[in-house]
UniProtKB/TrEMBL annotation:
Name of the protein: tRNA 5-carboxymethoxyuridine methyltransferase
Enzyme Commission number(s) of this protein: 2.1.1.-
UniProt keyword annotations, A-Z: Methyltransferase, S-adenosyl-L-methionine, Transferase, tRNA processing
Membership in a protein family: Belongs to the class I-like SAM-binding methyltransferase superfamily. CmoM family.
Domain Methyltransferase type: 62-158
Function field: Catalyzes the methylation of 5-carboxymethoxyuridine (cmo5U) to form 5-methoxycarbonylmethoxyuridine (mcmo5U) at position 34 in tRNAs.
Organism: Aeromonas molluscorum 848
Length: 273
């Protein structure tokens, strides 16, 4: 029996998802866990490479949909100026407390707005634009992403992290969740922290290319962790696991199997095509 829905992305959201009421739970579950530690280590390595590519100088950085600003705070602590926007007032309240504790108030400006309304709140362009784990929560990811491209300065870099539909499909297959696959990866009941609109990598890459940016790097995030047969190994063998993640995360076919994919794209410098 054929199941035509299996290879189609059929997620349709009526509105963008906010983390109001879930900010503390998000911070604990996403960042204080083995999967969160892998995510931050791998992505930060990529960001450091982007910083090196941009030169040893203070940068103007936009963190679009950055939540409580995990990376925004790290970047501000390095001396960069950061604008952090998020749809969730609760996330920004958490950010405000952490920023004050670290004495970073002069280096981070908080903006409470949807990404789509950024034009009303910021001016000019940025050397580095972060958009991490946002597309999969949006009703119109393509339109929102295209709206970010004008904020990238000529020669600047976009750091885009998104929830990978192929990774979700593969994990569902290897655990034998075949009914879920036949339903097109649609759940009747969504859990609070499970992304609702996973993205097809080839589609995201096409949007980036059509927006005039050149992809300069791709990294799979959690290319091993989520597929391990014995979940206790995620904790008991974490250091070895992290080393293996870092070794394979930028190699195919592993990139394509990451639960998230971090893609870095650079806008051509002025006068270059």
């Amino acid at each position: 029996m054929a199941h035509a829905c299996i290879d189609k992305a059929e997620f349709v959201l009526k509105q963008d998802q906010s983390f109001d009421g879930r900010a503390d739970k998000f911070a604990r579950n996403i960042y204080d866990s083995t999967k969160g530690r892998i995510r931050t280590k791998v992505v930060w390595s990529d960001i450091e490479a982007c910083l090196a590519r941009l030169g040893n100088r203070p940068l103007r950085i936009l963190d679009a949909g950055g939540g409580f600003g995990y990376f925004a705070q790290k970047l501000a602590a390095m001396g960069h100026q950061v604008e952090l926007c998020d749809l969730s007032a609760d996330m920004l309240a958490l950010a405000r407390v952490q920023i004050a504790e670290r004495g970073l108030e002069d280096r981070i400006r908080l903006i409470h707005c949807p990404i789509q309304d950024l034009k009303a709140h910021v001016t000019g362009t940025f050397d580095l634009v972060l958009c991490h784990a946002v597309l999969e929560w949006l009703a119109e990811p393509r339109r929102t992403l295209l709206g970010l491209f004008p904020f990238v300065h000529a020669g600047g870099i976009l750091s885009l992290l998104f929830y990978n539909r192929h990774g979700l499909l593969f994990q569902s297959l290897v655990v034998g969740n075949f009914d879920y696959v036949r339903q097109g990866l649609n759940k009747k009941r969504q859990t609070a922290l499970t992304p609702t609109n996973p993205q097809l990598p080839e589609q995201v890459y096409d949007w980036i290319g059509r927006g005039g940016l050149k992809i300069i790097g791709k990294t799979g995030v959690r290319v091993i962790h989520d597929y391990m047969r014995h979940k206790q190994d995620q904790v008991e063998k974490f250091e070895d696991l992290l080393a293996m993640e870092q070794h394979y995360c930028r190699q195919e076919p592993f990139v394509a199997l990451g639960r998230y994919i971090h893609v870095m794209a650079q806008k051509p410098a002025s006068g270059k095509s």
